[in-house]
Amino acid sequence: MRWNMMILASCVLTAGCVGGTSMSERQDANIQSSLQYDSVPCDQLLAQRNGLAQQYNLPTTAKPTFSNPAMGFGPFTPDMRSKVKRDTDQASGEIDAMNRSINRRQCGQPDKQKKLALPG
Fold it and tell me: Is the pLDDT of residue 14 over 90?
């Protein structure tokens, strides 16, 4: 009975230490909502996305990537990526969110609502 309590306590402590620093949790944090960019004017958002892509040497179509840890061990796999890799992955998530806002609002595309009016 005493061994069971010691094992349980060590598992609880280990789970507490892992929280927030596992690979899967940090990769999930790279997914961002595109709604936060809907209030940014299209021209500024396009410039911001292009600047972020250039800063991290990413394409403007970058999307977040995920590793494939062993089945069931994702929450317990420590994040061993370098700071540069973590920053690049986070930038990919931001670029993807910006692109979803750009596509939804049809930024950079001719306004389909306006029609050429001929003088009468």
Answer: no
What's the alpha-carbon Rg for the chain, to the nearest Å? 22
Cα distances (angstroms) measured from residue 114 to each of 21, 109, 117 = 50, 12, 9
Whether the model pTM is above 0.90:
no
Give the residue among 4, 117, 119, 106 at the shortest CA–CA distance from 46: 106
Q: Please give the distance of CA 99 from its chain centroid, rounded to a whole number.
A: 12
Phi, psi of 5, rounded to the nearest 5 degrees? -65, -40
Q: What is the DSSP string of 55-108?
A: HTT--TT-------PSTT-GGGSB----HHHHHHHHHHHHHHHHHHHHHHHTTT
pLDDT digits (tens, 9 = 90+) for 28-80: 666 788 899 999 999 999 999 999 999 999 999 988 876 665 555 556 667 67
For the cut 70, the answer to whether the pLDDT of residue 6 exceeds it is: no
Instruction: Give, in order, the Cα–Cα distances in Å from 14 to each of 75, 89, 91.
Output: 12, 26, 30
Name the strand (E) or helix (H) holding 51.
helix 42-55
